[in-house]
Task: structure prediction
Amino acid sequence: MIGHRPSADPAADGEIALDRLPRAGPSLEVVLLRDENIGTGAAREPRRPHRHDYHELIWTRCGSGRHLIDGEVSAIEPSTVTLIGRGKVHVFERATGLFGAVVRFGDELLDGGGDRDGRPSPAWLFNGRGARTVAVPDGEAGRLGSTIDALAAESRRPPDAASADLHRHLLTALLLWIERWYDASRTDRRDADDADVQLHRRFVDVLERDFARHHDTGHYADALRVPPAALSRALSHVTGRGTKELITDRRMLEAARLLRFSDLTIGEIAHRAGFGDQMYFSRAFKRHHGEPPMSYRDRLRGSP
Result:
């Protein structure tokens, strides 16, 4: 972990190690990076893969390196912001000459969770598979850095009646800028205000919250206040996959994480992914990944 390390729960009973922010209540930590080096020569070694009990925003002003997110490589590039959602398995594998900042925060600091005139909260940026990396446009690095500096200064002040609101408003401003830059980078493919895109982003938020408990498409349609057919049509338009497929994808992503990075039994993993029957889970996993759960685990861990 870069900078000051949050408290880490040891990996007990086969679990993946979990990092938590140190304080109760509204949680925020800002670490400014000044020529950070990890895993290169005399630099300190990276940690083992671990999960976060918080969201992480990494602003890379300059420097290079790479993360591993759920075991997949994510490059560290200058003038980018990388967003890593709560629960993803992460390790900062190596970094050289890294300048910028890391902002860590809990769910309670995300903007309200409600719609903004039909648009989802920017919390959707942290959901989905892997990390999301957004390029910072030319001319925007100054105000991005200044706002992160202001957030860092506020996080170091003794808390008062205004602290939580200031943390939330400054963080929301950062996320709205990042959402704007992300949308601007993809307007050649889809209008940023397309109703299907907005519905997909709202769906991703609900899916992240409910995937282990709710597997029927009707639950998500009801939560989003749209007919099931309209939801599936919109999701297919944006992703090429229907509601049921995306629910299954999210459950299988959780199962794959736990198989690769934890020592939980197949039955325990089936339960975490929302399957009541281990045999049914094993068959479903093989259909999805092309091999049984134990073969998948052994292959990725290098076991014979």
